[in-house]
Amino acid sequence: MTTLLFATNNQHKLREIREIIGTSIQIISLNDAGFEGDIPETGDTLAENACQKARFVYERTGRDCFADDTGLFIDALDGRPGVYSARYAGEGCSFDDNVRKILAELEGVENRKASFRCVICLILEGKEHLFEGRVDGIILTERKGTDGFGYDPVFRPKGQLQSFSQMPPYLKNGISHRGRAIGKMLRFLGN
Ligand code: ITT
């Protein structure tokens, strides 16, 4: 069975990736691999950051691995928070702080269009492969639902009646940015 190390410190992403991938590939966490410490993330694009994270972990572990870099791009905010989605409300901020900040910035704004975009960088025997996934939707005026993480309570995908936080995981994963990017990676690995 293929074994891949997932270069993330975000436990929500780890759970989601395991739910999406199921048992076809064994996903090892940084913890399982005995890897400790921060992974730098200083790029200006999702692809640069995904590759930086994957390369950093590959160089230190020598294991085939992948990293995911994700951002929420809001039209009315000129694409913010975008690449800076994790620390939008400042260093050490919580998911809730970030949600509060975008809701305040969008107060009274009619155009609520946004997209989640995810880039995965997979490193197999030292060679990099990129996979992208995107989902379009809108930013709600208030939080809805309790599942998921990050900006999920205020993001409703196009054509859906529920926010990502109101959906059972299989529904979110079936249409999400991450689900789509991982689907491409699995098809590549299957070939
Ligand atoms: P790693 O770099 O360790 O993987 P991170 O949390 O820093 O973890 P990102 O930079 O890719 O990861 O993610 C940016 C932020 O975007 C993340 O902290 C969440 O707030 C948000 N985010 C990512 N994926 C999301 C999702 O599926 N649903 C809602 N918000 C998400």
Structure overview:
The structure is a single chain. The chain has 191 residues and is of the alpha/beta class. The chain has a single domain (3-190), classed as Alpha-Beta Complex (Maf protein), CATH 3.90.950.10. The protein is 31% helix and 25% strand. It contains five helices and seven strands. Strands 1, 2, 3, 4, 5, 6 and 7 form a seven-stranded mixed β-sheet that branches. Strand 5 (113-124) and strand 6 (127-139) form a beta hairpin. It is globular and about 50 Å long. The chain starts with a strand and ends with a helix. It binds inosine 5'-triphosphate.
Write the layout of secondary structure elements.
Layout: E1 3-6, H1 11-21, E2 26-28, H2 46-61, E3 65-74, E4 81-82, H3 95-105, E5 113-124, E6 127-139, E7 155-157, H4 169-175, H5 177-190
Parallel strand pairs: 1-2, 1-3
Antiparallel strand pairs: 3-4, 3-5, 5-6, 6-7
Helix pairs in contact: 4-5
Key terms:
191 residues, alpha/beta, 25% strand, Maf protein, 7-stranded mixed β-sheet, binds inosine 5'-triphosphate, 31% helix, globular
Name given to the CATH architecture? Alpha-Beta Complex
CA-based gyration radius: 16 Å
Q: How can the largest sheet be summarized? A: 7 strands, mixed
Enumerate how many helices there are, as a single number: 5
Enter the CATH topology name. Answer: Maf protein
Number of strands: 7
- Compute the separation of the termini in Å: 14 Å
Strand content: 15-25%
Compute the number of structural domains: 1
What small molecules does this complex bind? inosine 5'-triphosphate
The chain-level mean pLDDT equals 96
